[in-house]
Amino acid sequence: MALWTMILRKMANNKWLQLNLWIGLTVCVALFSSMPLYSEAILQRTLQKELQSVQLQEGVYPGYIRIGTTVSSSAMDEKTIEAIKRADRFVQSIPGRAGLEALSVYQQRFTQRLKVYGADATDQEKQSQKTAGSIKSLSGMEKRVRLIDGVMPAVRADGIYEALVTQKFLIATKRDLGDELIAEAPDKTKFRVIPVGIMETNPAADPYLPFLTSEDSDGFIIPFDQFESDFILGGKTKLASLDWRLALKYEQLTIDKIDAFVQTDKDIRRYFRGRIGVDEVNIPAVSTVDSYQGKQEKLDVMMLSLYSPVMLMLAFYLYMAANLIIERQKTEISVLRSRGASRLQIMTAYTFESLFLGVSALAVGPFLGILFTKVLGASNGFLEFVNRSALEVSLTSSAYFVSSVAVAAALALILIPAFMATRVSIVSHKQQNARHNKLTFWHKTGLDFILVGIAVYLLYNFNKRQEDLQRLGLDSDAFQLDPMLFLMPSLFALGGGLLLLRVYPWFIRLVYLAGRRWWSPALYNTLVQISRSSGQYQTIKLFLIMTVATGLFSANSARTINDNMESKIQYNIGADMTIMTRWESDSRPSTYLSSAPQQVEAAASSSNRVQYIEPPFQPFEELEGILASAKVFKKENARFVTPSSGTSGATTLVGIDTMDFGQTAWMKDGLLDHPINGYLNLLAPNTKAVLVSRSIAEKAKVKLGDTIALSWDGLDQAPFVVYGIIDYWPSWNPLPNGNNNDKEKVAQPNLIVGHLGTIQKRLVVEPYEVWLKLKDGVASQTVYDQLAEKKLKIINLQDATQELIQSKNDPFRLAINGVMTLGFVISMLISFFGFLLFWVLTLSGRTLQYGVLRAMGIPFGQIIGMLVSEQLLTSGAAVVLGVIIGNTISELFVPLFEISFSTKDQVPPFEMIQQLSDYLQLYSIVGITLTIGLLILGYRLSRIRIAQALKLGEE
Predict the structure, then answer these.
(1) CB 902: neighbour CB atoms within 10 A?
(2) Using one digit for the tens of pLDDT, what is the confidence trace for 922-955?
(3) Can you give the pLDDT at residue 816?
(4) Cα of 485 vs its chain's centroid, Å
(5) How much is the pLDDT for 536?
(6) DSSP labels for 500-559?
(7) CA distance 479 to 486
(8) Is the pLDDT confidence value at 604 over 50?
(9) Of 123, 560, 680, 722, which residue is the least packed, with the fewest Cβ within 10 Å?
(10) What is the phi-psi region of residue 446: left when phi exceeds 0, alpha when psi lies from -120 to 50, beta otherwise?
């Protein structure tokens, strides 16, 4: 009890310091808990959206499962009957295996196909009748079909089967309801059947798993129990197939159930493979679900790397807060040691104190983590948020586990100063108080050089890897950031900050020596104070350096990643929307898509050239919300020949109308030597003018004004004149194909751009794409509705707007934008609290000094001037150093993000983006934070009374 009393008394005496330490622990818990919370929530949302898209693409409920199997046995022996019973039991276990509720289940049985004719049919009618169908059963028949006419079938004891039939099948039998029919098996076994009802699909009966009569409209449906007794157990005729269908509640499919769902799919396929007959399993959602396996682990690793800068900041903050508390209690600790208290006893007291803070932080932190997670989900860029639907977040055991580990690590960190203090005697403590300018631990050990060296070494390796990928045209993995890309800048920023802080005291001494005869008393006092006590300022300066440096790096990284991903999408599509329509022709099939190689080959192999009928272009020009439209013809594997050098080869040919293309196409500035409209103006006057890619110019030694001949698929060559050489063109990828086995000679794509009208007149008319540019604010759905209303035959459509939205909602991209924003905001809050904590305690420690200065007659204004100049030379200098380091790590490390993109598809080239608004935003936040801190410090300074200060000195 005495121990707890002492602990609580100590915490009460240092309540503001303890509060700051608790805030740091709580933020630490919130950060770590937000990692599993975010990865689960965002992946859950994207999984549900992709499952919903399955319904749009496949036309079935996302939880749909169909299992079908033939029955290979010719007779219903005991083995076959038992196999069917076991299969029924296995299907009943599927919802439990997947961990999902079954919303709807039904099964069907089918006999072999039977010849059907009227009971009163003549021999001639029997021979001419071609109608055939099977006897079937459907579980829950009464609830799943709708009667058009007649009644539901009943079980009769006279050997006649009452059945439901479709209208189509009844017409085919040439009989009416109530007429007796004969269903004759191949072995001449006959069954008497009377259709008593006409059925059709009842979509309202089961919205999840409707029974579609159109799937198999031939045959008779009899009561399920009657079928079981007569055909399964009775074996009256050969069974043809069995069918089970389930609709599982896909909304219950959470990230932690993915493995179970995928395993269930494997179990189903393994169980039915050859067990009864030839199986067919259809689970449309399994490919979507399977793609999420392992995603959460990758996302957690990436978030851990994204959080690494702010985690370093938190570690410094916790250590600084704990160290400040211990510094105020070092005298007490040394006295306790001198009076016989053991180190274990003292550490036990501090351990209980830390545990109290840790448990309380663990109680509050995860709920703050939920808030952090929702902030991540609403991010759209660095310090940018949109009104996106909030993530559904709930606390999980994994979040508490990660939080507990974080608390344990943090407590171990904050106990280090206490452990170090227990080694100091009262004499050593007094000696240390008189020496403020000694070297810190990291400068003694050369930690700054070590960290910078590690970062530079890793940078060299990444640059070398990136050069190899670009040189060989190889492809890196799909967009997946390497965690080291965020750890390296943090190491460099920390090492660089420590390195500059090693040099900065010498700079202050140089300034002091240079003007010591002219400095005012306030500035003189400040320079002496900073030069003699440089060690005590290093923690707060390192805080500010890391905050500003990582903030700049985060801003430039997020802007660069977002801009390059968006530019890639817009460039690859070429315009806001591209459409390929169906062209009528004299070939079979009548459609043709110029970008499909197999159709090109089919056309080429035809003895007669396919003639196409060009559809009207006017409907596209009349679309509302369209700013411009253009015809763009693309022909892969066209052939070129240069008469001057005799060089020939394959090329992509693009035909355009220069005016329309210039108004419609999207092109990033700086990719071409001149603006794209300049090249279009160059082409416009001469219908024979073409632009060629630099790969052709270098390979064929083509110069401006040279003639180049074009053709394809046996067409006569048509001459054109080279008017320009280009490196890029909307939707064309100039990067080499990395599939070439000869690494020394990587294939370089070729391109020729000419007039569409000339190509059509001198070569041939073939299908072209329609490119559209939308007016600002026009939704894609508006265009889709108009295309449907005009009944245009669309066979392919690419929408840049929708792809950009999909890209922005990618879990990994959301994590990058959200964590960088959240990390910077938390860093600023940590710096703000650390700034106040440090300077408030510093002012408290200098109360006597300021009282003496005021008693000596120095005005309050000069005291404020001393404080401001001290802030400028410490905090202000740290901000400047942070800007220098931030710009340095941006220039060095941001270009490395290119390695995380698909290298062979990264067009336009990866480019680092720096935007002035990001810098202004960052500087504003830092400036406001420091200004608020200064105002608080100034207010506290104004409350110091001279008499109290002098009395304190006497005591």
Answers:
(1) 12
(2) 778 778 877 877 787 777 777 766 555 555 444 4
(3) 76
(4) 17
(5) 67
(6) HHHHHHHHHHHHHHHHTTT--HHHHHHHHHHHHTHHHHHHHHHHHHHHHHHHHHHHHHHH
(7) 15
(8) no
(9) 123
(10) left
Confidence of residue 162 (pLDDT cuts 50, 70, 90): very high
Residue type, 912: M
Residue 195 pLDDT exceeds 90? yes
Which pLDDT score is estimated for 470? 57
* All residues at 6 or more sequence positions from 62 whose CB lies less than 8 Å from its CB, including other chains: 51, 52, 54, 55, 250, 284, 285
Mean pLDDT confidence for 333-359: 78
Highest mean pLDDT among 352-356, 560-564, 726-730, 906-910: 726-730
| Cα 88 to Cα 337: distance, rounded to the nearest angstrom | 77
Contacts for 672 with CB less than 8 Å, ≥ 6 apart: 679, 726, 727, 728
Name the residue among 785, 788, 783 with its Cα closest to residue 772.
Answer: 783
Q: Which of 844, 851, 863 is nearest to 945 (CA)?
A: 851
Strands 239-248 and 64-70: antiparallel
In this structure, the chain runs to a length of 955
Report the DSSP pairing between strands 181-184 and 114-118.
antiparallel
Residue 93, pLDDT above cutoff 90: yes
What pLDDT band is residue 227 in, cutting at 50, 70 and 90? very high
What per-residue confidence (pLDDT) applies to 144? 87
Is residue 532 predicted with pLDDT exceeding 80? no
Cβ atoms within 10 Å of 495's Cβ, excluding its own: 22
Q: Are 821 and 382 in contact (CB under 8 A)?
A: yes
Helix (H) or strand (E) holding 67: strand 64-70
- Tell me how far CA of residue 435 lies from CA of 441, 454, 500, 588, in angstroms: 14, 32, 22, 93
Query: What letter represents residue 559's amino acid?
Result: R
How buried is 862 (Cβ within 10 angstroms: 0-12 exposed, 13-18 middle, 19+ buried)?
middle
As a whole number of angstroms, the distance between CA 629 and CA 774 comes to 9
Measure the N-to-C terminal CA separation of the chain; round to a whole number of Å: 33
- For 906, counting Cβ atoms within 10 Å of its Cβ (0-12 exposed, 13-18 middle, 19+ buried), the class is buried
Give the residue from 576, 601, 603, 579 showing the smallest Cα distance to 589.
603
Q: List, in sequence order, every residue forming a beta bridge with 195; answer none if it has no partner.
A: 163
How far is C-alpha 160 from the geometric centre of its chain's CA atoms?
Answer: 62
Contact predicate 395/370, CB 8 Å: yes
pTM of the model: 0.71
Least confident range from 292-296, 650-654, 792-796, 913-917: namely: 292-296
Share of the chain above pLDDT 70, in %: 86
> In whole angstroms, what is the distance from residue 827 CA to residue 493 CA?
14
**Distance, CA of 696 to CA of 711 (rounded, Å):** 16
Contact 277, 241 (CB under 8 A): yes
One-letter amino acid for residue 526 of the chain: T
Q: How far is CA 158 from the centre of its chain?
A: 66
Q: What is the mean pLDDT of residues 470-496?
A: 65
Pairwise CA distance, residues 772 & 621, whole Å: 9
Mean pLDDT value across residues 145-171: 90
The DSSP annotation for 726-769 comes to ES-BTTB--SPPTT-S-TTSPPPP-EEEEEHHHHHHHT-----E
Residues 6+ apart with CB under 8 A from 385: 375, 378, 379, 821
Tell me, what amino acid is at 128? S
Block residue for tokens 């530079």: 456
SS3 939: helix
Helix (H, G, I), strand (E, B) or coil at 183: strand
| Contacting residues for 816 by C-beta, under 8 A, at least 6 apart | 306, 481, 557, 558, 561
Instruction: Give yes or no for residue 275 having a pLDDT over 50.
Output: yes
Q: Answer yes or no: are the C-beta atoms of 709 and 640 closer than 8 Å.
A: yes
The H or E element containing residue 880 is helix 877-893
Q: Position of tokens 């509640």? A: 249
- Distance CA(579)–CA(784), nearest Å, equals 11
Which tokens sit at 950?
């002098």
Q: Which two tokens stand for residue 252?
A: 């219950």
